[in-house]
Structures are given as structure tokens and as C-alpha cells.
Amino acid sequence: MEYEDRRTIATPEGVQLALPLAGIGTRFMATLIDLLLGFSIAFVAVLFAGALGGRVAAAIVGAAAALSVFVVYNVVFEVFGGGRTLGHRAAGLRVVADGGSPVGLRASLIRNTIRIVEFGFGFYLPAVISILVTRNNQRLGDIAAGSLVIRETRAPVYEQPQPVIPPAQFASWDVTGVGDAELAAVRTFLERRHSLAPGTRAALAGELVEKLRPRVPGVRPGLHDEQFLEYLAAAKSGPSAPPVGGSAPPYG
Fold first, then answer.
1. Where are the transmembrane segments (predicted)?
2. For residue 145, what pLDDT is reported?
């Protein structure tokens, strides 16, 4: 389950994109890291409050700290940290909406408020059961919020191409096997790629290349996925065509 579960979604380009779902092992590790970090800070805060203000102050700080550990911390990192808490970063996970887009404030609040209930009834036992029995490895909070926890896919290092593509790069390509619908999907991806998360961007480019590269004889080996798509769009559009959507910046 940890390495094979996928959630397949249809993108606006008509390509089926597979999101690798996080399993219970990596999710447990991420949660444990977050809880250890959060409760360590909360423990120090409670001790400090108790020393200064007594039991009442310690109780107030303790309640506020518990709310922060379960809700505030997670919401801040999920909404403003690219869907990744510190535990998620360490485990290579990310929280996204069930369509693959970044998780929003409302969804994050829902999934993390329900986290309190999951923790209070059997120390995450309801969450564990839900992850094991649901199709998309979702705990109760994920189901209510419409969110998924996925494993990060690392994008390959990309070398920036020239602003104008020389015709020699694709002069020997036979692009007659690529139709208008496929070209439209390529051009849409190239125009939208800068707004996509690196992992989603690389995965979507890989899906397009896997489908189209066999239809284009003459492609030299070792060509990066996005460069292939840029050259393909240029070859179909005419010589010396600039890259659609601008040349892609390096990323890792």
C-alpha cells in the first residue's frame, strides 16, 4: 500500500495524472515528528507560565498550546507552507485538495479541527482505521475536508533552453503523428506550467511525453521532458518559434 496506491485525476489538458498516495507508515512518522516538536514547545511554555502565574496560568497556556499543536500549527503550514508541515517535509509528504490543487484555508481548518476528535478518541485510532479502509488513504478529517496526503515526487533538474529554439533542434523530427488535440494539450501545459507545484509539473510533463514521444521519430536521446514538449510545439508551429509560455526556469 505504501508504494503502490495512486489517485488518478483528469487534468484540463485531458491527461490522466496519477498522484501517489501516502501510506500509514509515512503518515505516522510525519505526525509523530509534528507532535514531538509541538508538545516539546508546549511543555516548556506551560512550565514557564506555571512558574510566573501559577496553576491557572499554566492551565490556560496548556489549553492554548494544545489547540496550537493540533490546529494552528498544521493550518499555517498547510496553507502557507505548500501543504507541508515540518513532519511532512521530513517524510516527503504534502497535503493537497482531492483534485491535486493546493489545500485551502477552509479545508485545512476542517481537517485539523477533526484531528482533535481523532486524537481524543483512542489516540488516532479512528484515523488509522479510516486510512486503512478508505480507497484514497484518507482519515476522517481528509474525508470531511476533501483533501489527500500524497508522497512528493521530485522533479528532475532542468537546464534552461534558449529563448528562441533553433530549427536545427527539431529539423529531423517527423511530427505528423501528433494531432491538433495533442498539440493543444501540450500548449496548454506549457502555458500553465509555471503555476504548478514542481512535483505535479514534472509528473504532468512525464505523462504527456510518455504518450507523444513514440509518435515523433528523430528525437535525440537525453532530451528533458519539458524541452521535448517545447521543441514539439515549435516544430508544429513553424521554424524559430519561441517557447510557449516562456522558457522554463531551473528547478529541483
1. 28-49, 56-76, 114-133
2. 96
